[in-house]
Specification:
single chain; alpha/beta; Uracil-DNA Glycosylase, subunit E; six-stranded mixed beta sheet
């Protein structure tokens, strides 16, 4: 078993946050009407993708009726519909849809992680919950040794990654980096290029804050950067 597989098992078995443990169990009991015949995953959701990926995506947290139901990041909800279609079109996914853990989807040169591994109430994790989950992301960053580009999906993921760099002494100040959609950030020699992006949440995509064209531009930028970053 690889070190990444061991880490993912630890993530799935995590019970550090009582509020989230209780919330996952309640969601799995109550369910959403459309999914009342489904067995919910209702556990922390591990990362997913190519262990030799050069592109790493960092999201916020599993959706209550998406990844928390299916057990795979960005799978089974509108955010995943939006994300995987564009990843497919830009060559980072094997198919444009993601409905379940066993639907055959594979990621190509890409891996998806999250700041928080359990679905939080109202999509708003508490600071201590983010803190409890942080070691899992730190360990992924250690194990995914081929990563050359990181896309932070949303400001919370952006801030979380930069705090890791700051606390490790790789950047001096978090305030030196300003979040904006499709903005490229250089955090230091030998470190992955960071791209900040709006999160593909339904709130952003249904209001036009994030369009397909805007999101595609992020992955086109990532692809262009990787062309100059050989394995």
């Amino acid at each position: 078993m690889s070190a990444l597989e061991i880490l993912n098992r630890k993530i799935i078995a995590c019970h550090k946050c009582p509020r989230l443990v209780e919330y996952l169990a309640r969601i799995a009991r109550e369910k959403r009407r459309a999914y009342r015949e489904c067995d919910y995953w209702a556990k922390p959701v591990p990362g997913f993708g190519d262990p030799h990926a050069r592109l790493l995506l960092i999201g916020l947290a599993p959706g209550a009726h998406g990844a928390n139901r299916t057990g795979r990041v960005f799978t089974g909800d509108s955010s995943g519909v939006f994300l995987y279609k564009i990843m497919y079109e830009t060559g980072f996914a094997s198919q444009p849809t993601s409905t379940s853990r066993d639907d055959g989807l594979t990621l190509i040169d890409a891996y998806i992680s999250a700041t928080v591994r359990c679905a939080p109430p109202d999509n708003k994790p508490l600071p201590e919950e983010i803190h409890n989950c942080r070691p899992y992301l730190e360990r992924e960053l250690e194990l995914l040794k081929d990563v050359r580009v990181i896309v932070a999906l949303g400001k919370l993921a952006f801030d979380g990654y930069l705090r890791i760099l700051r606390d490790a002494g790789r950047i001096t100040r978090r305030a030196d980096f300003v979040f904006a959609h499709d903005r490229e950030h250089r955090t230091g020699p030998g470190q992955p290029v960071l791209i900040s992006s709006y999160h593909p949440s339904q709130q952003n995509t249904s209001t036009g804050k994030l369009t397909a064209e805007m999101f595609t531009a992020v992955f086109v930028r990532a692809r262009r950067l990787l062309l100059h970053q050989p394995r």
